[in-house]
Amino acid sequence: MTASYVPAVDVHAHLGVPAVDQLIASEPGLARQCQIDAAALGPQSQAVNVAQIGALAARLTDLDLRIEAMDRAGVDIQAVSAVPLPHSWAGRELAARIAAASNEAVAEYCAKRPDRLVPIGAVALQHPDLAVRQLRSAVLDFGMRGVQISTSAAPGVELDDPALADFWATVEELGAAVLIHPWGCTLGERLNSYYLFNTVGNPVETALALSRIAFSGLLERHPALRIWAAHGGGYLPTYLGRADHAWHNRPDARTTAEPPSAQLSRIWVDSLVYAPHQLRHLVAAMGPSQVTLGSDYPFDMGVEDPVERLLAAGLDAETVTAIRGGNAQRLLGPLPGFPHEPSNASIGGVQ
C-alpha cells in the first residue's frame, strides 16, 4: 500500500456463532423469542428467512468465502460482529455464557486474519453490571474494538435508562465503540406482511433508540462516546428537522443544551442506504465525518458492492476518503494498513 492509500473498511458485517446456537437451542426463552419474531414476520417472510439462513450458513462462518467476498467488493478490512439475534430474555448465568461464547468465537475467527478482520463483541445489556464486566473483558482481554448492542437493553429498558449509566461511563472510559443494531420492531404484528418486519421495523427501532439517546443528554454527559448505528441511522437522519423543531418549541423536548441534530452529529452511521441520492442526503444530514462503509454481509438486505456505491454517489474526494475508511479508523481506533494514526484535526472533531 502506498502512503496515500486509505483502506476500505466495512464496519457492518456479521458472523454466525454455532457455539451460541447450541448453547441456547433448548431454552424456553429462545422459543418465546422465536414465537414473537414469527408473529411479527408473518408466515411468508418467516419461510423466506428460514430458507435464507440455511443458504447463508457457509458464508456466515467460512473464512475463505468471506475474504473472497471482501476482495470482490474492494473491501480491505471488516469489523465483524455476531449475528444480532436478541438474547435479552436470558437470565444472568446464561447471559454470561452467551456473551463469553460469542466473544471467544468472534475473537478467534478474526485472529486468523488480523490484517483483514477486527472483532466486535457482545454484552448482556439486560444485566447492566454484568454488561460492564463483559465490556471490560471484550476490550481488555479479547482486544475487541467495541461491542454490538440492540436498540433497547430489554423490554421496557431503553438505552437512556439510568440503570445503564455505569455501562455508558465505562464505554467512554475505555474509548470503545458501541454498534447499535436493531432486530425487528416492537410494532409487532402490524408488520407481519411484505417483510415490513425489516424494511420498516429496523429503521423505526434505530430512529427511536437514537432519539432517546439525543433527547436524554447522554451525549452531553459523555461527549467522548463512540456510538455507531446500522442502516444509515434508520429513519431519523431523513427528518431531523422535526426533532429540532420540537426541541425549539416544546418545553418537554427542550432537555439538552443543544438540539438533536447537533447531538447526533457526533455519532457514526453506515452507508447502507442503497441509492446514490440517499447517500448524499445522509452525508448532508450527519456530516461527512460520521458516515462509514457498511455492507451487512452476508444478508440479502445488505449489498455486495459498498465501495462502488460510495463512488457512485458523486461526493467530493475528501468525503469519499473519509467514508471509505478514515471515519472507521476514528470510530474503531488504529486499523491495519493505514498510513498513520487518526489526526487530531479530523474533520469530525471526535477522537
Q: Care to describe what's here?
A:
It contains 15 helices and 11 strands. The chain is an alpha/beta fold. It has a single domain, classed as Metal-dependent hydrolases (TIM Barrel). Strands 4-5-8-9-10-11 form a 6-stranded parallel beta sheet. A 3-stranded parallel beta sheet has the order 1-2-3. A two-stranded antiparallel sheet has the order 6-7. It is globular and about 50 Å long. It starts with 8 loop residues before the first strand and ends in a 19-residue tail after the last helix. The model is unreliable at 341-351 (pLDDT under 50).
CATH topology: TIM Barrel
Estimated helix fraction: 40-55%
**What overall form do the CA principal axes indicate?**
globular
Number of domains: 1
Number of strands: 11
- Strand percentage: 5-15%
Give unreliable regions as ranges: 341-351
Q: How are the strands of the largest sheet arranged?
A: 4-5-8-9-10-11
- Secondary-structure content class: alpha/beta
CATH superfamily: Metal-dependent hydrolases
Task: Tell me which CATH architecture applies here.
Answer: Alpha-Beta Barrel
What's the N-to-C terminus distance?
Answer: 25 Å
Mean pLDDT: 94
Q: How many strands, which pairing sense, and closed or not: the largest β-sheet?
A: 6 strands, parallel
Q: Which class in CATH terms?
A: Alpha Beta
**Rg from alpha-carbon coordinates:** 19 Å
Write the element-wise H/E pattern from the N-terminal end onward.
EHHHHEHEEHEEEHEHHHEHHEHEHH
